[in-house]
Structures are given as structure tokens and as C-alpha cells.
Write a structure and sequence with these properties.
237 residues; 5-stranded antiparallel beta sheet; 3-stranded antiparallel beta sheet; 2 helices; 32% strand
Length: 237
């Protein structure tokens, strides 16, 4: 295969991956706490002595959007939304994880958990516990939990030390290998949930662009294949 074919195939592979990412964003436009994702492309240039250089663009990393999602009032005592920076700290089987999805409940043991049963952690990394007889539970903007005016804990609000070190694990869970630090410029709102920060219109528009670019590449490969076939036929004759 000639260099033009390799270059086009590389481009097609990247466009296909971007199409999958966009489709996933659109599918989760209604998912609470979902963060939109995008691809970062890198250009690889091969210099050929006494000849033209070859340039290939391939997706090298994924980026997670930090835009604020819409805040939707629910009135739920255990529904929390983050306004500004930060993530809730969650204890999963594989280790601590981050999420913006704040629809929680209480386990039989009185621990605050996600819908998947993952325990919500406090500012010190310990599970958040709510006494079974606690009533009139309130959450302050800094995550402090009180019941009947009595302090009972604090929900942890953290962010990764490296903002580019977010690795998606599932729909709304993220892993970070760089560690976390407390967040000072974010606040927690009780009785709200944060919607997905996906703009469906722009995502659909981008999908159309990527699809057209992919179809153009396919047509180019087909035409190039036909050209090579005709050239071989001519040479054989």
C-alpha cells in the first residue's frame, strides 16, 4: 500500500474513534453528572530524505470537559450538586473514585452510598455516616452535614492534582493516578442534581462533520484502489 493509503487509513481510524466518543456523549446527554468527552489529536511527521514528508494525525488522548452542567432542583434531602470545581470522593472496589453524580441514599448501616452501593467519603477519606435517628438533615456549601443543628460529618470535595489526569471508568466515575487535593472554590447544593454538561446540538453538528469526513475518506480509498487495479491491468497487458 502506498503512503497515501496508510495516511488515509490512519485518518479513518481516528475519525471512527471520534464518532464513537461523540455518540457516547449524545447517549448520555440526560445522565446526571455526566462529563462530556473529546479526543486530542497529535500529528506525526516522517521526514524522507530527498522526498516529501508524510504527515499523519492520530488520537493520542481523551479530554474531559470541565464545563458546569445545568443545576436541576429535586428537593431531595440526599440529592447534591456541585457548583464550581470539584468532585465527590467515592470508595469503589478498585479504589477511590471521583464523580459529579450526587444522587445518594443511606445504606442499612447508615452510610451514605451511591446507587451502585459505593460509599461516599468525607474530607478525611472515611465513609460518611448518618445516625439512624437523624432528622432535619442539612448540608452546608462546604459539605458540612448537620442534623437538628448538630454537626455529624462533612462530605469530601476534591479534585485531581493534575487536571488532565482524569480517566473515565463507567459513565460518571473517574480515576486519577496523580492524587487529589481538597477544593476550596466549589460548593455543594442540597436538593439539586447536576445535569450532563453535553450540548446535544453541537455534538450532533460535529457528528455530521465527522461522518462526512469519514465518507470522503472512504471514497478516496475506493478511488485509489480502482486506480491501482487499472494500473496493474495496464501493466499486465
Amino acid at each position: 500500500m502506498e503512503n497515501t493509503g496508510y495516511t488515509t487509513l490512519t485518518r479513518q481510524s481516528g475519525l471512527l474513534r471520534e464518532m464513537q466518543v461523540i455518540a457516547n456523549n449524545i447517549a448520555n446527554a440526560g445522565t446526571t453528572g455526566y462529563r462530556a468527552e473529546g479526543l486530542i489529536f497529535a500529528e506525526y511527521v516522517q521526514r524522507i530524505e530527498n522526498g516529501p514528508s508524510i504527515s499523519m494525525a492520530t488520537p493520542s488522548a481523551r479530554s474531559i470537559s470541565s464545563l458546569q452542567g445545568s443545576l436541576q432542583p429535586t428537593g431531595g434531602t440526599l440529592d447534591f450538586a456541585i457548583e464550581g470545581a470539584g468532585f465527590f470522593l467515592i470508595e469503589a472496589a478498585e479504589g477511590n473514585r471521583l464523580t459529579r453524580a450526587g444522587s445518594f441514599s443511606l445504606s442499612a448501616a447508615g452510610e451514605m452510598v451511591t446507587h451502585d452501593g459505593h460509599r461516599v467519603l468525607d474530607a478525611g477519606g472515611a465513609p460518611v455516616f448518618v445516625p439512624p435517628n437523624a432528622t432535619d438533615m442539612r448540608i452546608a456549601a462546604d459539605g458540612t452535614i448537620s442534623a437538628e443543628g448538630r454537626l455529624i460529618g462533612q462530605i469530601g470535595l476534591v479534585r485531581p492534582l493534575d487536571p488532565n489526569d482524569l480517566i473515565r471508568e463507567g459513565g460518571t466515575l473517574f480515576r486519577t493516578d496523580s492524587g487529589t487535593e481538597p477544593v476550596q472554590d466549589g460548593r455543594i447544593l442540597q436538593g439539586f442534581l447536576e445535569g450532563a454538561n453535553v450540548d446535544p446540538i453541537s455534538q450532533v453538528a460535529r457528528m455530521v462533520e465527522v461522518q462526512r469526513a469519514y465518507e470522503f475518506g472512504q471514497n478516496f480509498l475506493e478511488n485509489e484502489n480502482n486506480r491501482i487495479r487499472e494500473t496493474l491491468k495496464t501493466m499486465i497487458r
